[in-house]
Amino acid sequence: MLAVVQFKPRRGARNANLDKLAALTSQALKAGARLVVLPEMAATGYRFPNPEVVRPMSELPRGATFKVFAALAKEHTAHIVVGFVEDNEGKLFNAAMVITPEGKLEAVYRKRLLYIDDHTWANPGDLPYPVFETPWGKTTLGICMDINDPRFLTHVRKVRPDVVLFPTNWVDENADVHRYWMNQLRGWNGTFVAADRWGDEDGVFFAGRSAIFKAGKAVIEAPVEGDGFYLADLPVKAAVAPPPPVEPAPTE
User: Fold this and answer.
1) How many CA atoms lie within 13 A of 133 on its CB side?
2) What is the reported pLDDT for 89?
3) What is the pTM of this model?
């Protein structure tokens, strides 16, 4: 099963938020999830006026956030994807990490196309879009505004992944966010796993409605408000059988 975690963080309270996110993730894993996606900047909040305000919550890829979720990934033999604030030699990035079922760091991705609220503190991402294998097939990752970035859309249409993972803090603009996401990805019919936050921050409201889509249709959908995890029991991709061994040619 795949799962999304929907959550409203308390801005600035990273450790307390991590405790709550770990509890929700643990529940999803105990319910059978083997791939869990959490929102963009899941444990920090999102709207920050400058780099110095967010810097105390930034971390290295194998920092506090990794340690919490690596233990869960290893315990339950699952992939976990979670957004965090990365500090790379003093440069801050809106990033997400991919943790393997062995509890190892598979990849780090840095959001390339920044939103208004990212520009106050974050640097544009400079890493390639990760491509890795999960039980559901070839998988890739983008963060929120990346779905508006021609570079990401070209990547999806070129690589043709089976699964796109999408941590997001999608601002509520009184539009059908599901229809918008699917329209952006038109022509691609894989599994789309969107984990969103909900609620408001400084009067800006976020859309909620985390969801898992298959071929453009929502298989499971969260409400506009509320913390929780949501599961979709989608079939794993059949393993490709190795070719039969070649018999040696008979010798005379």
Assistant:
1) 5
2) 96
3) 0.93
